[in-house]
Amino acid sequence: MAQLSELELLKASRNPLRVIDDLYKEALEEIPLKDEYIGLLKWYGMYPHINKDGLEDKKYFMKRIKLVDARMNLEQLRVMSEIGQKYAKGLVDFTTRQNVQFHYIEIKDLPAIFDMLGSVNLTSRMASGDGPRPIMTCPVSGIDEGEIYDVQELLKTVDSYFDQNDDRFCNFPRKYKIGISGCKCHCAAHEIQDAAFTAFKTENGEVLFDLTIGGGLSKSKQIATRANKYVKPDQVLDVAVACAEIFRDNGNRDNRNKARVRHLLNDWGIEKFVEEIEKAIGYKLQDGFEARIVASYENRNHFGINKQKQTGFSYVGFATNSGRVAGEDFVKFYEICKKYNAGGIALTGTQNFIVYDVEDEVVQSLADEFKALGYPYKPNPFRARLQSCTGKEFCKFGITETKEYAKKVVVELEKRFPNFLEDVTIAISGCGNTCSHPQIADIGFVGCLMRHEGERVEGYEVLLGGNLEGTSNSRIARKIGLKVPATGVIEYIEKLINDYKKDNKGTSRFKDYLASIEPEGSVNEEE
């Protein structure tokens, strides 16, 4: 048997969530946190910033806040905007997992931050770490007129179960990501979750959830496998817990690179995995049949002004620029929502947001104010679907600077192609961990170092043709054997668009054209 890593030994010796005791000792008693405990801060959504030498700067941290249903009501939004301005130097990011991420957080300020979060029923506990991550869901569940099923109560039930039994679920081999959604456009991306429950209606109107297992990106990317089993709404909790326990007890603890649910699924096969689920829950699940038709990735959004199922109310979907929101803008989010008595905001899985529970009489005025602030509700395709990760600005894995760079890319593409209306997804990632999801984008850029004109510069490996469209029709983007310097990314995208316009003759969509491009062979090799 392989020897456990230092992290596994540390997790086994003490509940990782108890690191909060050490946080308070440093904050209140000036007793420094042990170096070996720095890695446990993830259990409270914290990661050390990186200094100018590329080393961990243990004074400052980026910190994620867990949003159980992807939403912040007005009071929660007020508190979050105050944290952003007072403690995070006005740097606020929306993540691809529907969370808020602050920067420049100091341990000395954590007691005050925890108090502020607790006053409005928010937490950073289990926002990260080796356990159940925040559950992906549709941000307009319960309010969208065309939804298949309102999963809000299911979502909260599953999250509460994990939270109330944290001693059983805080030490997994690695993270455990699930999705629960009744969205008509499948915006929770079930194909890349460790376990996902996607609602549909049978011909007789019964709601069932299609169970998928073993999806994920990063370096061991793969599309989830259908279990060919259907789960009734009152069975979702049982199955979600069973999958978690199976992973906890059988996942690889010797090698963190092979410690996700998908690795266990690949070792066992889907039939054995399902057998273990049914053994754990004590009953057989309903047999599934053909895969359901699901929306393509670029159509998984809720932009614009939309009627809610609640009479007299609407919600509005807005685009950010690459997921970063200035702290002063975040304050204005609250002020505008309060002015029009909106319910709050909800975050999407594409780093955008929705304002919900807006009275029909004022919804246009609210939409116009957000647009004037720089957040359009009818965004062009570049602003709508260009995602970026944190990058080397703050992340120890980052090779390239991404967030502020990506914002400039969006603005320049808008200038060069003001009338380009085709749906396109673009993702810029600072390293091979691909937190911005370049592997499922039409155009993906993965950060690297490369030789360009005799110099060692920041660059990006190009991936083309990714897409999500159900477990059978999804595509992982292909490496095409090309790397471009960071200074050449905009020109490269410009060339792709112009070549498409020249070659297409109106016979295909831009995304289909990108998927058809043949690899060029290896050039500009990384050092």
TrEMBL record:
Coiled-coil region: none
Enzyme class: oxidoreductase
EC number: 1.7.7.1
SUPFAM superfamilies: Nitrite and sulphite reductase 4Fe-4S domain-like, Nitrite/Sulfite reductase N-terminal domain-like
Any Pfam family matching the protein: NIR_SIR_ferr
Top-level taxon of origin: Bacteria
Residue span(s) of domain Nitrite/sulphite reductase 4Fe-4S: 128-282, 387-517
GO molecular function: 4 iron, 4 sulfur cluster binding; ferredoxin-nitrite reductase activity; heme binding; metal ion binding
Keywords recorded for this protein, A-Z: 4Fe-4S, Heme, Iron, Iron-sulfur, Metal-binding, Oxidoreductase
Entry keyword Iron-sulfur: yes
Domain called Nitrite/Sulfite reductase ferredoxin-like: residue spans: 56-118, 307-372
Position of the signal peptide: none
PANTHER family: FERREDOXIN--NITRITE REDUCTASE, CHLOROPLASTIC
Family: Belongs to the nitrite and sulfite reductase 4Fe-4S domain family.
Protein name per Swiss-Prot or TrEMBL: Ferredoxin-nitrite reductase
